[in-house]
Write a structure and sequence with these properties.
Layout lengths: L13 H15 L2 H9 L1 E5 L2 E5 L7 H16 L5 E4 L6 H9 L3 E3 L5 H5 L6 E4 L6 H9 L3 E4 L3 H15 L3 E5 L5 H10 L8 E4 L2 H13 L3 H6 L11 H4 L3 E5 L5 H18 L7 E3 L5 H14 L5 E5 L5 H11 L4 E4 L10 E6 L4 E6 L8 E7 L5 H14 L9 E3 L1
Parallel strand pairs: 2-15, 3-4, 3-5, 5-6, 7-8, 7-9, 9-10, 11-12, 11-15
Antiparallel strand pairs: 1-2, 1-16, 13-14
Helix pairs in contact: 1-3, 7-8, 9-12, 13-14
């Protein structure tokens, strides 16, 4: 064993996890939401009907990340514990991490940030993972790493790593500034750094890539359209010859499929009908897709409005909002504190990328059906708080026998 590398520590022992489970439940559990989930039901309170999506809130990967962070606090209670960025994209959960005494490092720590670390310190890698350069820098300091990276994210890493080994450029459908996409892009370089990647945000950017694949063009103009979204030394005239599509796991499945179809068709036309220079693997997170599918199902019941609860920087939550906005009046909120009154709501506007104040959002008279869903990083207690606040503003209480099945 490398004498400079800390020995692996099993955090998930029965006694530790028993303590962790009790602590996590006290912070995030909701009996009301669990009952609603178990019955797949409707909450009927007087004139108000609450429809809760059948899939919502914490996914397995998020639960595991939180459990490991709490377990680290238990096992390493006598040592400093640092978290790279945010454990997940939810401000309430990250505030709980701080309350546990966990210190925070930037997701992309500088040399000065790293200089503050010592070999006895613990560093938690969040659920989205971290860039390889950051991991290597922390390891070089001798710190104990607690890696909470989601398995679905690591599955994407395996694919882009394979692309690099076979000199295939990874085209990553995602947000270039998102921690997960940056972590994936770093793996797309391969172990020797010779691999290449290009991050595309949407169909429009994919269309620009397809045009260059088929028609060529000015490489400098192309690169200017993708600032911060390409590997070092990326040359579209060379590195778009063989491509493989991957994705940030929380993107819209339909959009990722549309992008891969466009790219496949462009390469096939360029190569005389052959798609041998194109590869694609479905790497959308199953929990992300389940929540999107459940929202479509909820919207088919035609609620009068939709509330989406979650962190404003949460990609999977943002996509739920996008789906909702195409169908019903939709409000994107962090928690119940955003519901200031029946007239005022503090919500996030996807177009302006700002939290703004909305007015006259909640009718107080007549029958009303409200759909509610939440991103994969939103705990159940915040969902319950929102349900209770909506009913309070409508002048109604949660009934003792208010849950029915669908």
């Amino acid at each position: 064993m490398d004498p400079l590398k800390p020995a692996r520590v099993n955090l998930r022992t029965p006694d530790v996890m028993s303590h962790v489970q009790a602590q996590v439940e006290s912070h995030y559990r909701s009996e009301l939401v669990e009952t609603l989930r178990a019955q797949g039901g409707i909450l009927q309170a007087g004139r108000t009907t609450i429809l809760l999506a059948k899939q919502f809130g914490f996914c397995y990967g998020v639960e595991r990340a939180i459990d490991l962070a709490y377990a680290a606090g238990k096992v390493f209670s006598d040592r400093r514990i640092f978290l790279l960025g945010e454990i997940i994209h939810n401000p309430d959960v990250n505030a709980q991490m701080t309350s546990l005494g966990i210190l925070h490092l930037p997701a992309r720590p500088t040399g000065d940030d790293l200089a503050a670390l010592g070999a006895d310190d613990i560093v938690i890698v969040p659920a989205f993972g971290a860039e390889t350069a950051t991991i290597h820098a922390v390891q070089a300091l001798g710190c104990q790493i607690v890696d909470t990276t989601c398995g679905d994210v690591m599955r994407v890493w395996k694919r882009v790593h394979q692309n690099a080994a076979e000199q295939v450029t990874s085209i990553i459908h995602g947000k270039a500034s998102h921690e997960e996409t940056r972590a994936t892009a770093s793996r797309a370089l391969g172990p020797d750094g010779s691999g290449h990647y290009l991050v595309v945000l949407d169909i429009d950017q994919a269309g620009r890539v397809c045009k260059f694949i088929e028609d060529g063009g000015n490489a400098a103009d192309f690169l200017a359209a993708f600032p911060g979204a390409t590997s070092p030394g990326f040359d579209p005239q060379v590195h778009l010859l063989r491509v493989g599509v991957a994705n940030q796991t929380t993107m819209l499945l339909g959009e990722t499929q549309a992008i891969q179809n466009l790219l496949r068709a462009a390469i096939s036309r360029r190569d005389g009908g052959s798609a041998k220079n194109f590869r694609y693997f479905d790497t959308i997170c199953g929990a992300t897709q389940a929540r999107q599918d459940a929202l479509f199902q909820l919207l088919a019941e035609f609620p009068d409005m939709l509330l989406v609860i979650g962190g404003y920087n949460s990609s999977n939550t943002t996509h739920l909002v996008e789906i909702g906005e195409k169908n019903q009046p939709t409000w994107f909120i962090r928690n119940s504190d955003c519901l200031r009154s029946a007239d005022e709501i503090l919500h996030y506007d996807l177009k302006t990328k700002c939290e703004v104040l909305g007015f006259s959002w909640l009718p107080t008279a007549g029958a009303l059906t409200i759909g509610i869903t939440a991103g994969a990083s939103c705990p159940n207690n915040l969902i319950e708080d929102t349900i209770r606040r909506v009913l309070e503003l409508r002048g109604e209480a949660v009934p003792e026998a208010g849950i029915t099945t669908r």
